[in-house]
Structure formats: structure tokens, C-alpha cells
Amino acid sequence: MKHTPHTVVLPFYGYAAIALLAATILLACSTGAMTGHYFQPHVLAITHAMALGWGTMIILGASHQLIPVLIEGRLYSNTLAMLCFVLAAMGIPLLVYGFYVFDLGWPAKAGGILINVAVSLYVVNVVLSVQKSGKESIQAVFVLTAACWLLLTTGVGLLLLYNFTDPFLSRDSLAFLSLHMHLGVIGWFLLLVAGVGSRLVPMFLLSKYSNTSQLWWMYALINGGLLLFVFLFVRFPESGWHKIAILPLAMALLIFGVYCFRVYQSRIRKRVDGQMRLSILSILMAFLPLFIIAVISIGSAVVGNSPVLPLVYGFAIFFGWLTSIILGMTFKTLPFIVWSKVYEHQAGLKKTPQPADLFSHRLFRLMALTYLAGFLLFATGLAWKNIIVLNFSAPLLVTAAFCYNLNVFKLVFHGRHHQ
């Protein structure tokens, strides 16, 4: 088994870091839009910057590194991985710009096409890597299935983009936004995070706990819940029955929580560092969107639909659960990638630093504190529709993103000064 070259993986991390900073700056400049309806140009732009530029790009980079570990073999093609990066890196800004100025003409459509081609190359690379290795772990099945859901998500997104300007679907694009979003959030992000997390959390906590049966149940419940959601959404669009899908998803999250708790109990490494504490917190934060969905369902039945709660829901997913796990896991995976690049061939020959020595822990703590404070305050400001709280908390999120960038690029450029 051979690691994927750092030249393939590091660009994804660097791009994602810049995308996070750009998204938080856009958020700070658009607080006024956050007190209105969720279907607004700036809200759409920020959502796609977070979902694609931040979450998807860093997961693509990390998975190119992790796939060889999961299948105990090489990545099929480093060239496909680099093409995936280049096409996605060009497509995402075009799409985000199109949403921000709400010009859904050729730049936005070109961006959507480039993103779909990039994702298609990623899916092909994953499929051929698994096929070539001949070894399928449960985690590899999670990654492969999540990649297919991602391709479906971006494909539906491209159809909706064209439907905005040249309507050909049975309903307008706004009616399908919930379907598009949840295909990505559940099928791509949740499935992949659960699968990869079931391997990384035991590895980083030095735990031998494993329960394949629990993982298969989790896999079945996430995919079954999403398929149920899609069927009910398409078949009974006005009924609201698709919200029933929250039940199997909640069960899957409970199983994942129990799995991680067992891992934590049986860990050899008793001291848990800040990176893992933030990652463990993200497991708890995964339940927050489900709670908000329950509140939305009950509230709409009692007092009618609220335009505020969907914004809080989306914010809890992209700036809460997803961001918290990435902030923590970045500084568990990226230092090892950089260490392998610079020091692996020197190990045993002379004294070398540990991976954890390659980034600033002081910056990490400042990032974690400003992020958690900014997230809690901004979510509160959204719920109260309080522009003062939003304007106060948004700079905290920008500060957290800036600290993250400083630490990431400290790692990315580490090898240049030690070669």
C-alpha cells in the first residue's frame, strides 16, 4: 500500500481553507440578508461556498489520501485526482459568483458543468481504485456510495440551475431545493463522515473497538432514510410526509454515537487532545439539525411556516456540524500528510518532530474558541432575527477562519523550509 502523493492532496486543503475564509467574509457582509427568507442570492452563494468550496473540497482531498488506507491498495489514478481538483477549483467560484449576483447565465452554468465533470472523475477514480484492489472494507463501501450520492446531488443541482432560466420541470426550482440539499447533506456528507469517522476515531484514540454489524445497520438506515425521503418528496410533494425520514436518520446517528462512545471507552490513549474534543463535539452537533427539523414540523403544524428556522437549520448543518468536524479532523490528518512528506524517510535515522508539532496549538485554541462563540452567537442572532448580534458574531467566525488558514498554510509550506 502506498500513500497518495502530497502534491495531489495538499491543494484540496489549501483551497478549502481559502473557501472557508471567503464564505465567512461573505457572511459578515450579508448579515442583513440573514433576517429574511432563505431563498436569496447571498444566502445561496454562501451555502454553496460552504457546501462545495469548504466541505466538499476538503473531503475530496482527505478521501484521496484515505482511500488507499481503506482498500489497502493504491489510488487508481493521481492524474484523475488532479483533474478533479482543477475542474472543481474553476467551477465553484463561477457558480458562487452566479448566485451572489443572481445571474444564472453562462458563468453559473459553466461552473455547474465543471463541478459535475470533476465529481464524475472522482467517482470513476473511487470505483476503479476499489475494483483494482479487490479488497472492500465497510468504510470503502460508505465512501463509494457517498460518492454516487454526491454525483446525483450535483446532477440535480445542474438541472435546477437550467430550470431557473428555461423551465422544463413540473415545478419551479425552489420547490426542489430541499431535495437537492438533503441529497448532499445526507447522502454525501453524513454517509461519508460516518463511514470514514468509524475508521479515523478509533485510529486517533488508539482503540481496537470494532463492530461491523453496527456499521452495516448505520449504512442501511442512512441510505434507507434518504431513499424514503426521496420517494415521499417526489410522490407526495405537498404532504410533508418526507419528514418521516428523520426517524431512520436519528436511529443511524444514535448508533454512530454509541459506536464512538464504545471507542472512547476502550481507548488506549487516555488523554484526548483538542482536535479530537472538537471532533467528538461535532458528533453531538449532528443531532442539532434533527432537533430543528422536529421544531419546524411541530411549529408549522401549530402556527404555520416560519422563514427563520430553515436558515437556522442550514446554518447548524454547514457552519455547525460539518465545520466542527472538519476543523478538528484537519489537524489530525494534515499534519500526518506533511510529516510523511518531509520526515518519514528520516524516521529512525535522526530525531524528527511529531506530526502534532508541525502546527500552532495556540492558534488552534484561538480558532476553536472564536469558532464556538461565533457559531452559538450567530445561531442565536438568526433565531431572534437580531442584526446587532449577527454583526457582532460574524467577525468571530471570520477570525476563526483566519486562524484556520494561518495554521493550514503553516503546514502546507512546512516542507519547503525543511527540505
TrEMBL record:
Protein name (database record): Cytochrome C oxidase subunit I
PROSITE patterns for the chain: PROKAR_LIPOPROTEIN (PS51257)
Transmembrane segments: 12-33, 45-67, 79-100, 106-128, 140-162, 215-234, 240-264, 276-299, 311-331, 363-384, 390-413
Originating organism: Flavihumibacter petaseus NBRC 106054
Signal peptide: none
InterPro entries assigned to the protein according to its UniProt record, in alphabetical order: Cyt_c_oxase-like_su1_sf
Assigned keywords, A-Z: Membrane, Transmembrane, Transmembrane helix
